[in-house]
Amino acid sequence: MLTNLYIENIAVIEKSNIDFTSGLNVLTGETGAGKSIVIDSINAVLGKRSSRGIIRSGAESAYVSATFEDVSELVLKKLGSMGYEAEDGTLILSRELSSSGKNTCRINSRPATVAALKDIGEYLINIHGQNDNLELMNPALHIVYIDALADDAAELSEYRKLYRELKAVEEELSSADTDEAERLRRIDLLSFQIGELEDAEITVGEYEALTEERNALQNRERIAKELMRARAALDGEDDVDGALRMIDDASSSTLSASRYMGSLGDVADRLSSALYELQDISRELENAMDDIEADPGRLEEIEERLDLLYRLRHKYGDSEEEMLEFLDNAKKELKSLNDYAYNLEQLEKRRENLYEQAYNSAKELSIIRKKVSESFRESVEREMAFLLMPNVRLEIQHEETELNSRGIDKLEFLISTNPGEEPKPVSKIASGGELSRMMLAIKTVLSRADFVQSLIFDEIDTGISGSAADRVGKKLSQLSRDCQILCVTHQAQIAAFADNHLFISKSVHDDRTFTHVEPLDTDGRVRELARIVGGEQITDSALNHARELLNSAQEK
Questions:
Q1: Which of 127, 206, 404, 449 is most buried (CB neighbours < 10 A)?
Q2: How far apart are CA 415 and CA 377, in angstroms?
Q3: Is beta strand 454-458 parallel, antiparallel or unpaired with respect to 484-488?
Q4: Which contiguous run of DSSP H or E holds residue 2?
Q5: Residue 469, in any domain of the structure
């Protein structure tokens, strides 16, 4: 459960350290004091979308941390799958928002992402805000409540997997169903491109090798002149000995000397090796001269080949590798187009098979939902009767629709609030107060199947007062025996049931607004309940009424 919330520089809260307890935690205070900011802060640290606008005016950044203790095995398992641990069952989430838009998030002091906070946050707290009542006005969302109670996550996941595969095949079929004339035009183009590339017989590295050879042929006179000089230096000319002759003489003389001085043997061998190496170089130089003069038409052939490769590179890729890859892809596409009829038939068979599997899976989901709907209906009616709506009759209308992301079921809640009236859509019958109580009833029913340890109700009392508010308070108190409840309320009847009553107030100093959060003792609670009941002018009558509310709630 959530045990501590630290807030710094969020809206009108400069710094606040709030402790929560098990049971029912109630937050009250004047309108605009900052109750919603506490909820916004919790949303922020749970990874929900937060804008830079929540940073306190004049501050560079805002910071929120939330401490959870005695976290469930499910949370520990989820943390482990994410690479985090919770020592002694304690988990601390933190998030810093800077004015530059940067977020710094941590899970137990280790760096994390906003997505990671959101991922683990879904296992920690379920927040019911004022706008959530509007979900009841939207029939498309009614199926979500049934699924939550049905615990059909595995079946729904399997169905959605099949549904995604089905949609992917249908998309492929749609894109494959192209105009026949366009298909034939594409076949002609690909056939030409493949023929052009195959006729070119491209090899990797050819362009670079030909460019080097062309460069040599274009400079063959200079090369020949330099080669002749090199050979003359090695082989000699006319009456001048070359290096080969001189090294040969040096080798012979050193070999003769080594007969009398053994240490010269190694030198003689080295001279002999140098001679062989230079003789080999002389032969290579001779071959190079022959190559240059061998084929006078070779330069023209190279120019033509390079021109072809240059044109192909501009059409099919900047390198031989890219052109060959283009050729491979073109062959695959051509095969696919030529096999069009066969592929279309196979895709259609796969679509039919997937549709049958998805439909059968959706049917199984529908059976589960219908079974759960009846127990859901009975439980919600019972809870609403407790909340002083004894005559409410709830029906869950089932219709089969086309396959969609949730199956084949269209569910809608129909209610009748008075005896003798036919059930009609919630949006056409329920008032604001009835919606609030209906949502509380639904949340109460769902809490038995919910895996989170903490529930937050932000102004669940919209549109209710008097005895109905008393029943809502009692229901929240009952609910808090199974999980921690945080409730923002304007109703004294609800606040009276608190196990931990937090008062939120604001003050102004030096033209700056400051919000404070403090736990109330018994006397403080009496005064706050009196303020809620009677306004700012707290009378003895209001105080007496507040004490009665408090005593009555404690007795219940």
A1: 127
A2: 10
A3: parallel
A4: strand 2-10
A5: yes
pLDDT by residue for the chain (556 residues), tens digit each?
A: 999 999 999 988 888 999 999 999 999 988 777 788 898 899 999 998 888 888 988 888 999 999 999 988 888 888 999 999 887 889 999 999 998 888 899 999 899 999 999 999 988 998 887 666 667 778 888 898 898 888 888 899 999 999 999 999 988 888 766 666 788 888 999 999 999 999 999 999 998 989 888 887 777 777 777 878 888 788 887 777 888 888 888 888 888 888 888 888 888 889 889 889 988 998 888 888 777 665 667 888 888 999 999 999 999 998 999 999 999 999 998 988 888 777 788 889 999 999 999 999 999 999 999 999 999 999 999 988 888 888 889 999 999 999 999 999 999 999 888 888 888 888 776 677 778 888 888 888 887 666 788 999 887 777 777 888 889 889 999 889 888 999 999 889 999 999 999 999 888 887 777 888 899 999 999 999 999 888 777 888 889 988 998 988 877 5
Query: Encoding tokens for residue 341?
Result: 């009829």
Helix axis angle, 153-176 relative to 340-386, nearest 10°? 150
In this structure, what token pair is assigned to residue 336? 């696919």
Q: Do 74 and 202 have their domain in common?
A: no
Q: How far apart are CA 434 and CA 53, in angstroms?
A: 34
Packing angle, helices 320-338 and 340-386, rounded to 10: 80
- 471 and 546 belong to one structural domain: yes
Amino acid at 441: A
Compute the distance between CA of residue 134 and CA of residue 370 in angstroms, rounded to an integer: 24
Report strand pairing: 393-404 vs 125-128. Answer: unpaired
Q: What is the CATH number of the domain that holds 73?
A: 3.40.50.300
Please give the structure tokens belonging to residue 175.
Answer: 């894109």
Count of domains for the chain: 2
Q: In which residue are the tokens 């079921």 written?
A: 409
Distance in angstroms (rounded) separating the CA atoms of residues 261 and 258? 5
Q: How far apart are CA 31 and CA 37, in angstroms?
A: 12
- Element of type H or E holding 415: strand 407-416
Beta-bridge partners for 457: 128, 487
Pick the last residue of a domain from 338, 357, 374.
338
Q: For residue 236, give its domain range.
A: 183-338
Instruction: Give the H/E segment covering residue 478.
Output: helix 466-479
Q: What 3-state DSSP class applies to 142?
A: helix
Q: Is there a single domain that holds both residue 460 and residue 534?
A: yes
